[in-house]
Amino acid sequence: MTNIDMKSRYERDGYVILEQALDPGEVARLVEEAVRVCRGELGDIQGALPSGGADTDDDVLRRFLCIHYPHKLSDVMLATMRHTAIVSALTSLIGPNVKAMQSMLFIKSEGQPGQAWHQDEMFIPTRDRSLTAAWLALDDATVENGCLWVLPGSHRAGVLYPNRDHDDSRYDCTVESYGFPFDDSEAVPVEIAAGSVLLFNGYLLHKSLPNSGRHGYRRALVNHYMSAESLLPWDAPAAGTNMAQADFRDIVLVAGTDPYAYKGLQDVRRPRIRGNRDGGCDR
Q1: pTM for the model
Q2: DSSP single-letter state for residue 203
Q3: Which candidate, 161, 144, 147, places its Cα nearest to that of 204?
Q4: What CATH number belongs to 3-47+54-273?
Q5: Cβ atoms 217, 145 nearer than 8 A
Q6: What is the pLDDT of residue 241?
């Protein structure tokens, strides 16, 4: 697929797939690194219980659904955030200057829930609609094990739909979007092979269903990016700062230059688990 075709498809549908962006060796290394992260070998994870030395890798992995900011623990995951195949596509879609502000490691074993319809922009507010997720499959993602579903074209209006709490046991504790002019019958499952990357717009409505497979995982490493030329008002501004000037600076520059480098960088977010329905929602 040419860059022109990729950008045209992305603008039309709100997503595009980078087939086999990582080779099997790179995927295997990330899978091994995920075990080290979950064991706590690379640093503390807020909310995680310590693992015993006798626990098998499966014992450890099945305790987790999602870990936020694993790139702050793992050099391998930080390097993947800057992976050439991903960044090359991002510069075509976003522009020459690109920054990342979040990573998430999903460990969805059988029986684990999905996430209801939502838009990433609702959680990560950008100013220029450049927010883009790079969803890297570490296992083959299938309908059976809980791949993503998308509503193609739902990003184009640039509207953030309202959100509400829900009690649907198929989904985790995060809220669900509602009131949008799309029907579930229009949803498309995005089944991709391990090593492939799904890039999608921050306004695209998407969800996932539980891993209903009899065994195994649906692991994924997800990074979020945006134009480095835009401010990121993710946190409440410091006292005396105008909201229009608020700019989250716990970022990683992955391409080009940072026009706001004069502000310096921060290290404010800590690796943590996402809460489950029994333990409260820790977004």
Answers
A1: 0.93
A2: T
A3: 161
A4: 2.60.120.620
A5: yes
A6: 66
